[in-house]
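Example record

One chain of 754 residues, shown exactly as stored in the release files.
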Amino acid sequence: MPIELPKETLGFFKNDELQARIFYEKYALGTLDSKALEKTPAQMWKRVAKAIASVEDSDDKKKEFEKKFSWLLEDFKFVPGGRILFGAGSNRNVSLLNCYYLPLKEDSIEGIYECAKEMAKTYSYGGGVGIDISVLRPKGTPVNNAARFTTGAVSFMELYSVTTGIIGQIGRRGALMITMDVHHPDIEEFVTVKSDKVSVRFANISVKVYDDFMQAVERGDDYELHFKNDKVEKRKTIHARELWNKIIDTALNTGDPGIMFWDRIKRESPTEYDEKMVVRSTNPCAEQPLENYGACDLGAINLNKFVLQSFTKNPKVDWENLEKAIRYAVRFLDNVLDYSYSRHALKSQSEETMYARRIGLGVMGLANMFIDMNIKYDSEEAIAFADDLFKRIKEIAYDESSNIAAIKGSFKGFNKTKHLERDFVKRLPETLKKKISSVGLRNCCILTIAPTGSISTMAGVSGGVEPIYALSYIRRSESLSAENFEVSDPFVKTYMETLAVKDTKSLPPQFIVSHKIDPFFRVKMQATIQKHIDSSISSTVNLESSADRETVNKIYLYAWKLGCKSITVYRGGSKRDILKATDEIEKDKEKITVEEERPYMMTGTTIKLPTPQGNLYVTINKNEKDEIKEVFISMGRSGETEKSYTEAIGRLISVYLQSGGNAARIVRTLRGIKGGNSTWFNGIQLLSVPDAIAKSIELVMKKRDVNSPNATLHSAIDGDASIKSNTCPSCQQHTLIFENGCYICKNCGYTKCE
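Predicted structure tokens for this chain:
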């Protein structure tokens, strides 16, 4: 049942229910029994300004900065991270920092569960978490316990996902990022772990990709996966492009994994000279590379508020007030670190935030600023404007951090010589570098482009550096008391009211929405801005539902070559949509699926496979173009349950194929589904009835002849000459052989007979 909103709250937001609910249900101060004490953002701004100014060292300074911070916050000129808005001035035992990185300290049961415990504690304080599981030994390697062999790094992802889902937080879900090095032997399993769209559902996942892997992909070379610690070692050679295609295909179908270009992140990080500040992975949205127990101290300048004479032919950037806002915001975020010192879940988090004093000043409303300035997002003019804008933001922010260091001292880990030698810092103007050399730097990293999500929606502007998503859209929420919202973009609405524009079709061309912008231009914009950001950028390239592997391949390679630190794509329909543009909804309504008329005669193949439920018969028919268009599936006798559901699966597959569906997608969807029991047949393991159906279709797609002498189903599908050696499903070693109709593992004694 939706919570009733006060009239004052709705009135402040001009009756925009979504904006009002975000403020009232997520960020307004409430009592411990959730009774709201604030009805408008003005009350919130006052509370937050006073709390963050309270760490200044004199009453005069406290009053001075309370006034400055009030100016900064009012009218959403600067919007701090949601945890700051929720926790500053509150009596709740909560963190003010959005996210943390937690280390897996060792490859052991103790290390695995210690991380889970610290994760749960961090969630209970309101923080999100990033972890990297590359430290865990790969599947099938020995362990010194009753199991003999480990189930591998990926098997523990569900533990961390479930922990994230269990621990409740007011106004939002827990957030988790899990990463793995591309050279880890379990990387193929990691990449596909979310393919069923059920597993690891409370986590984002990303692959830490290195330059040598990207070069191997370009050349079409093999690539060695490797793992070594003081207990075990494992090496495995794969074809780089096969893994690369698996990453792309899974991202297309599920939205995960993302890609992090880890060599570039390390090169561009200003802190790699100190072991305590070396970045290990990122926060849940990947915009903030972090060290062990490092944290995200985030806030965003609302660029839309710094345009003079907007909606006219002669707009100007309000550089004077923008510079003032940047300087106040750096001081604000630095003060948050002191205010938060005793409010972290773990002592190690408190200590690390003081050692590095990492902050993340970002932006929101870039797309709105472009429109204010009569600039089209996907234009070279926009690229040049963004380049100049973020160069200025960078230099002002670094200058202010140095000013604060002159007064309060540099961060504890600061080494003047080594910091100034880092690639990003070396590109700063000479005068600024001399100043840093003379008086120091207050913060190890200063700039981050977060997606801003709910806070930019509350402020009524575009998130981060993203384009406007849609002129109107349906938004689904899991963290508000109302679930679905019909939203008209507030900025668009204001523009139309101000200039008496009657309908959206009459809007000027700069009102371009995300799905109409060339994805390669999105990458170019991200790379342009990344030059001026010492941390990273969270930005998602939206693709049409028809996007294919080659498109994503080109986007990823372009991002790597252009200088991005990470890249994420989202193909429409690959996940349940949080946002759906209304014009896309109308297109969906208008789509008419035309089923192909079945020809009088089709040619086909019937395959018989054994399953624990009985023999499975799959008949696959093709049209005159050699395209699979019909699948009949039968198992069991008429009237039995098995007969009905296999026949239903066949009919559904046929309808899909005759409506323009892709047989390869059916294989990707069904292959690997596990049942209660599996069966070995002719050199390959059939995990379930759906898995057997997928492998039958794949066999026909690959046009392999299993009736030829010495052929096996394994060789037909996977292309190997025989199954002389294969992976044991019990110990995961390559010691499984086929003798006298049975598969026998020479390592652990596993036996399975056909």
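Notes: The longest strand covers residues 603-611.
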